[in-house]
Amino acid sequence: MESVEDMPELLFVEHFRLNKSTFRRLCNDLRVHTSLRGSKEIPLKIKVLTALNFLATGSYQRIVGVSQNLTQRTTSRCVRQVVDALNHPTLMSKWIQFPQTVQERSLIKEEFQRKYNLPGVIGCIDCTHIAIVKPSEEEHAFYNRKGYHSLNIQMVCDHNLKIMNINAKFGGATHDSHIWSSSLVEPYMCHLHESGEHVWLLGDSGYPQRPWLMTPILNAPHGSREELYTTRHVQARTCIERCFGLLKTRWRCLLRDRVLHYHPNVASKITLACCVLHNISLHAHLPAPSDIPVTTVDDNDDSSTQTTQSTTTENRNELIRGRAMLNYLISRL
């Protein structure tokens, strides 16, 4: 343990992605709010450091400066225990929370308005693929259009790349629009509109246009208000793309070339744990890692296809209302 405590701060951050003070606060939170405990052989701090190093590298082969005596099996057990602890409802609700009050939403709206000249925006939504090993059950549900097995993870982030909502329940074969229609965020956004609050998320063309979900206008006439809207929409929506890039840069177990060798349920928990750690890192104002890997660009190209939802009367009505709200937004530019 002395080698870790004596490690220079920059080297500590390189290996574990958190600085020492943030790491100590995390250990205290895990000790107080979860069932994670250390043992005489492996103290709690060693378990957390082991997990952080794996999540940061995606490899069991480079557990540096933690312990010389941990076998891969023991390391894997430590990772699972810490990941489970990071998935504890107390930690999840503390670090990943959709804005619940008008005041919270207003602050986010003001920042999107200031940065991108788009009123009413409280977040950006998209999905990203997290590669997993071929599962033994329902393999077809995880085989994505890119030709590998994955989870299709939906996230919503704000202007600061903070993750406000995550849905990690679906396999890579599931389309973004289906995940959206199955999520808790969709009815919540609908409720806000029914309550008279004009706020919306920004999604790409793979999502259905709704009063609470704004999508780009494809082939907008040059020089038109519609083109101006789409330009600003695309600029603002880079928030979610940069969020994915930063998340996978810091916690590289999520990168395409790493592949999580776990059951999909465990891989989902690992992703959620990384999202918690992502927000903890942002809260601590930690800079992005300097050793950025070559491949950080997200490979989800569902935006290239239009949504193929069923054309029920309810969907048609929501689409009509969505277009009306879009026209209202464009008129405000």
UniProtKB/TrEMBL annotation:
Domain DDE Tnp4, chain residue ranges per copy: 125-279
Region (Disordered): 293-315
Protein family membership: Belongs to the HARBI1 family.
Species in which this protein is naturally found: Parnassius mnemosyne
InterPro entries, A to Z: DUF8040, HARBI1-like, HARBI1_animal, HARBI1_dom
Primary subcellular site in the record, as a coarse category: cytoplasm
Record flagged with keyword Nucleus: yes
A Pfam family: DDE_Tnp_4
Classification of source organism: Eukaryota, Metazoa, Ecdysozoa, Arthropoda, Hexapoda
Record has Cytoplasm as a keyword: yes
Protein name in the entry: Putative nuclease HARBI1
